[in-house]
Write a structure and sequence with these properties.
The chain has 547 residues and is an all-alpha fold. Among the domains are: 92 residues, no CATH class; 87 residues, no CATH class. The protein is 66% helix and 0% strand. The protein contains 28 helices and no strands. Helix 7 packs antiparallel against helix 8 and helix 17 packs parallel to helix 19. The longest helix has 29 residues. The radius of gyration is 25 Å and the shape is globular. It comes from Selaginella moellendorffii (Spikemoss). Keywords: Repeat. InterPro entries: PPR_rpt, TPR-like_helical_dom_sf. GO terms for molecular function: mRNA binding. This is Pentacotripeptide-repeat region of PRORP domain-containing protein.
């Protein structure tokens, strides 16, 4: 109810805000500090057009893109080889290369170029703008290093732009407390653009903190900043989650009156309709985008096609997945294109198409852990247990390190086939790999088979899935032990884990004492499911809880 009231208040405030030019639209995810804008936010067109310089450097970007994700150390040798062939490196040319690599999410490769510019080849003067560009790229790879670089900047370089880069980094990595601290600093200095507010809206959308949205809209009004198309597109899914389809459609009417409808709006509408079970409406929205890209109303962007094919997979439209992949496959598909296709094909049962995409990536030497994880999703959807175990062995053979997604899909596959022991073994292995190193004793460090990775944490959904599997068997002690070990690692705990634990007590028909106190001690608020299960539990104590 609080979220609903907050969104209603936002809607009233939105009606008071006028339309503002799109010049301050959110651009931090596209690298808007990178000199002159390469792609205009509204038109997505290169303002300088196609020149011999852009063509030559685009070829350099393609050469670098052919590298594997782990071969970033070969970026500078490729650039030097390209120069040895008689090509000239220019400031704008390197901006083009970096921009293309960023668009393909090759941040490690783009960072190698920025490091080369900063420490060796000063093609671009290392001034205030280039330093912020450098920090922004570093933030995609390492938050700690980016913060250290920012702290070492001259005092006069730590401007609003610099703090905006930090804010984008914290939002991207879901570091809410740090993001709010930076936003408070920017607000104290005076908000000169809508960008910081859009970033905070993105953060609150991700964490579903709806009650803080009204405050952000008031901040925009007090600063004289009008919400732009990006702001409304961020608010759209939040409105759906808090108020349902009716409130979402009401917001769309307001956006239409401001001429704020673009391809992203229709894609988010399709996703929301799909979540609401309104498949026909979702298809209608997607067809608007497809027709718009064919007629020129919307720009034909591969990332838009990727969003569409994922939504078609989500709503189970086989023909839609086939049609979009037929278009994308003729556009020199990237690794991301293949990943979206494989994921969508798995959801609609097109396993052969998914397998062909995986083999194509392997043939093009574009393999990395994300591709393997998507293929594990295919194995999960098709219940291919042996194929999944074989893929796990290949992951180790190729030198990749399994991440939380890898373990999540493997555990899901074995739980689906009732292989509880194998799932438990994988879960314990994941705990060993990702546990915090400084909490280990010297003896534990000595006998660990894998180096701990302190920058990555297992998914809370994996723990919940494992606990629910034990709960359905009524294994209260095993479920309590698993939950206790999870808390000892100081990983994220939410009400879903407590509900899974309660489910074990319910199946075993055992009472539980002091459960609400346990919730309060962890700062977790009970939901309707919690209250429902507690009301069904017996009152007579039969088992001693583990603490």
């Amino acid at each position: 109810m609080a979220a609903w009231n907050a969104l209603r208040e936002c809607r009233l405030q939105l009606q008071l805000l006028g339309r503002r030019a799109m010049s301050t639209a959110l651009g931090w995810d596209s690298g808007h500090f990178d000199g002159p804008p390469l792609v205009d936010y509204i038109t997505r067109k290169n303002p300088c057009g196609v020149t011999p310089e852009t063509v030559a450097h685009a070829e350099l970007a393609r050469r670098i893109s052919r590298l594997k994700w782990c071969q970033d150390h070969l970026v500078v040798p490729i650039v030097e080889e390209w120069m040895a062939e008689g090509n000239e490196i220019t400031r704008y040319g390197l901006i083009i290369v970096r921009h293309k690599l960023r668009r393909r999410k090759r941040f490690h490769h783009a960072l190698r170029i920025s490091d080369w510019i900063a420490y060796k080849k000063r093609v671009i003067p290392y001034d205030h703008k280039e330093a912020l560009n450098h920090i922004d790229l570093v933030s995609r790879v390492s938050v700690t290093r980016a913060r250290e670089m920012f702290d070492n900047l001259p005092a006069d370089w730590k401007s609003r732009e610099g703090y905006t880069v930090l804010l984008s980094m914290y939002v991207r990595h879901s570091m809410a407390a740090d993001a709010e601290s930076i936003y408070t600093t920017l607000k104290r200095w005076g908000l000169r653009s809508i960008s910081p507010i859009n970033m905070m809206l993105t953060l609150y959308q991700k964490h579903q903190v709806f009650w803080k949205v009204a405050e952000l809209i008031r901040d925009a009004e007090e600063a004289g900043q009008s919400l732009n198309m990006c702001s409304f597109n961020i608010l759209l899914p939040m409105t759906f989650r808090a108020g349902g389809v009716a409130e979402m459609e009401s917001l769309v009417e307001m956006m239409e009156s401001k001429n704020f409808l673009d391809e992203h709006t229709y894609c988010m509408l399709a996703s929301s309709y799909g979540r609401a079970g309104m498949v026909d409406k979702a298809k209608e929205m997607l067809m608007v985008v497809e027709d718009g890209m064919e007629t020129g109303k919307f720009n034909r962007l591969r990332r838009t096609y990727n969003v569409i094919i994922v939504i078609y997979g989500f709503i189970g439209d086989v023909e839609g997945v086939k049609r979009i992949w037929d278009i994308t496959s003729r556009m020199d598909p990237t690794a991301e294109d293949y990943i979206c296709m494989i994921r969508s094909s798995a959801k609609v049962g097109l396993f052969e198409q998914a397998e062909s995409g995986f083999l194509a990536l392997a043939a093009q030497r574009k393999m990395h852990i994300t591709v393997c994880n998507v293929m594990l999703q295919v194995c999960q959807a098709g219940n291919f247990v042996l194929r999944a175990e074989s893929l796990l062995r290949k992951i180790h053979q190729m030198g990749f390190k399994p991440d939380p997604a890898t373990y999540h899909h493997l555990i899901a596959i074995h739980l689906k086939n009732d292989n509880i022991q194998r799932a438990l073994d994988l879960f314990q292995l994941e705990r060993q790999v990702f546990r915090v190193p400084f909490e280990l004793s010297p003896q534990e460090r000595k006998f660990m088979s894998t180096e701990p990775r302190k920058d990555i944490k297992p998914w809370v959904g994996t723990c919940r899935m494992m606990m629910l599997a034990l709960a359905e068997r009524g294994e209260v002690v095993a479920c309590e032990t698993l939950f206790r070990n999870w808390r000892l690692e100081k990983w994220k705990t939410d009400v879903r884990l407590f509900n899974a634990l309660l489910r074990a007590y319910e199946v075993a028909r055992e009472p539980v004492a002091g459960f609400m106190e346990r919730l309060e001690a962890d700062g977790v608020e009970a939901d309707e499911e919690t209250i429902g299960i507690l009301s069904r539990l017996p009152e007579r104590p039969l088992i001693k809880q583990l603490h």
